[in-house]
């Protein structure tokens, strides 16, 4: 790996770090934000939801625009927007300013994340060096998720919640300055190639409404008029988008991308896996705090072994194992580890002990360090050079939707189960534990489904299938 490639990887990883860190760092600081700015119990969740809705809703459109105007330009613009928005969020003195700044952060995050995989796979064309780069990139993602929880507690307790946003500013400035020097210059296909404005309106509206519907399921319920109504509108818009893409002269998302079983299968496996993994982080944190009595900082520290495991495996083991045994086999092995760990959690007791009841799962979830790089490699390998940006946006969009859906489903199941057990006369701790066990069982089922898809859809292609799945050249 050349010096230029190392610097490029450092820039891409730093940007991914602050994007992911920002999604988790806020959760620990929410009580302090609520007290300081006078948020209501439901309103404070919009410090997370505003970011998620903008991020998930704009990823696909951003990926296509990145293909047209140049991925490096889009990456730098996104980081600039994210950095300015972080400064505004850190300076916020009222709820309106903070939510608006968080929405702007989501826009910047979407512009960045939509093209980062496209830049990475084109900058690292060799299979071995690409595997190493994806391992480092996945390591920063895992580190960002867990560092955010610990850092959020430290900054909020030692200084104040404003610093959880201000810490992004120097990192963002460094990424923009260094990125402008080391990222490959690419002009893209040009706006004349077409951005499909009707398709952009349909998919952005559908994804924004869909994300909004998902994140508010816990508040309104699955069968409420709010959920069903907005869910139906989102479905209609997304269906219209698919129809539009099949007929448009210059589609936003060329449906040929889905001809590859690698792309389609990796997307499905990713949604199922991240639904379980992200929900695991949320539900385990709730179990530790509400049942075992951990503080926010203790919770973050208790989850460090999982982050270290994912990071170490992705950084040091993923690439050599993929080179020796194949990407699909590594993915399969990582999913088996995750499933074993999640199954272990289905037996957590009311009076649990960290070493015997939680630490085994923290170790097993290191399998995510095998899964995430393998999914990224498989998901991007089936896309042509011209479609790399939109494939990256698609991959990241389904990642965000998978995480949001997993949290919505598992937290709703846990809450409903706990309410039923409490009504039956159980103590609060016992009822909560019963709810969390059900959530862990649902996560295990999701991982089992991911294993099944890997076995059936991501099987090695026959010679005839390999020819039929070659990317279609576009003039």
Description:
- By secondary structure, the protein is mainly alpha-helical.
- The protein has a domain of 202 residues: MFS general substrate transporter like domains (Growth Hormone, Chain: A, Up-down Bundle).
- The C terminus is likely disordered.
Can you summarize this structure?
One of its GO terms (cellular component) is plasma membrane. The chain has 475 residues and is mostly helical.
What is the level-2 CATH architecture name of the domain at 257-458?
A: Up-down Bundle
Q: In CATH's first tier, which class of the domain at 257-458 applies? A: Mainly Alpha
Report on the biggest sheet.
none
CATH homologous superfamily name of the domain at 257-458?
MFS general substrate transporter like domains
Q: How many helices?
A: 19
Task: List low-confidence stretches.
Answer: 464-475
Number of separate strands: 0
- Which sequence of SSEs, written as H and E, runs from N to C? HHHHHHHHHHHHHHHHHHH
Topology-level CATH name of the domain at 257-458: Growth Hormone, Chain: A
Relative helix content: over 70%
Mean pLDDT: 79
Q: Which secondary-structure class do the elements indicate?
A: mainly alpha
Keywords: Cell membrane, Membrane, Transmembrane, Transmembrane helix, Transport
GO molecular function, one term: transmembrane transporter activity
Subcellular location: Cell membrane
Membrane topology: Multi-pass membrane protein
